[in-house]
């Protein structure tokens, strides 16, 4: 049973470019969460999605960031016009559904903006 | 909103000694309290969790205690081993929501 998959594992972008991060949840999981971890800090919630629905985006920056989880395919976190401050590790987690379910984390995508 | 304070930020212990990490929170609606271990460059991995209807839970050398009245919960690692060296994060979740709110982390170093 494959765990949560994320790709790419490492991503280098120049300032102003776009970054696309992908997350495939565990088999049977329909809920996806994105977290950002700045160097030497804890994880900060960004967005919670179900298939074709954004449930909670209270942690998403108002500009340049967007997320989707289409009916088919992985969840995508998109960062437009990246800046140096976007450099971080972005972790995706999945769970089977609402309520008292553990969230399983993917290996993360380490974004470096040069 | 939710807020979690985690202490200490770094902890150095001798192999075989115990390590204790404490987290305090403010939102009484929180009802799920997991602890994650993160090794350098790796994903956070759940090591133990506790729900608000339980005061203590133990799994081999790891235990978690919860005091809902005082709004704090703690991780206890006994008989520490070098492989316990990592960053440990507490987290919590409100009853009505699904997002996890994380503490700032504790870097644990177990010296052989």
Give the helices and strands, then pairings.
The complex is a heterodimer of chains A (about 110) and B (about 110).
Chain A (H helix, E strand, L loop, with lengths): L4 E3 L2 E4 L5 E6 L6 E7 L5 E8 L2 E4 L8 E4 L6 E5 L8 E8 L8 E2 L3 E5 L1
Parallel strand pairs in A: 2-11
Antiparallel strand pairs in A: 1-3, 3-8, 4-5, 4-9, 5-6, 7-8, 9-10, 9-11
Chain B lengths: L3 E4 L2 E5 L4 E7 L4 E9 L6 E7 L4 E4 L2 E6 L4 E6 L8 E9 L6 E2 L3 E6 L1
Parallel strand pairs in B: 2-11
Antiparallel strand pairs in B: 1-3, 3-8, 4-5, 4-9, 6-7, 7-8, 9-10, 9-11
Protein model, in words:
The complex is a heterodimer of chains A (114) and B (112). Chain A has 114 residues and is mostly beta strands. Helix content of chain A is 0%, strand content 49%. Chain A contains no helices and eleven strands. Chain A has strands spanning 5-7, 10-13, 19-24, 31-37, 43-50, 53-56, 65-68, 75-79, 88-95, 104-105, 109-113. In chain A, strands 2, 4, 5, 6, 9, 10 and 11 form a seven-stranded mixed beta sheet that branches. Chain A has a four-stranded antiparallel beta sheet with strand order 1-3-8-7, with no helix packed on it. In chain A, a hairpin with a 5-residue loop joins strand 4 (31-37) and strand 5. The radius of gyration of chain A is 13 Å and the shape is globular. The mean pLDDT of chain A is 93. Chain B has 112 residues and is mainly beta. Chain B has strands spanning 4-7, 10-14, 19-25, 30-38, 45-51, 56-59, 62-67, 72-77, 86-94, 101-102, 106-111. In chain B, the strands form two sheets. In chain B, strands 2, 4, 5, 9, 10 and 11 form a six-stranded mixed beta sheet that branches. In chain B, strands 1-3-8-7-6 form a five-stranded antiparallel beta sheet, with no helix packed on it. In chain B, a hairpin with a 2-residue loop joins strand 6 and strand 7. The chains are: A mainly beta (114), B mainly beta (112). Chains A and B meet through strand 4, strand 5, strand 9 and strand 10 of A and strand 4, strand 5 and strand 10 of B.
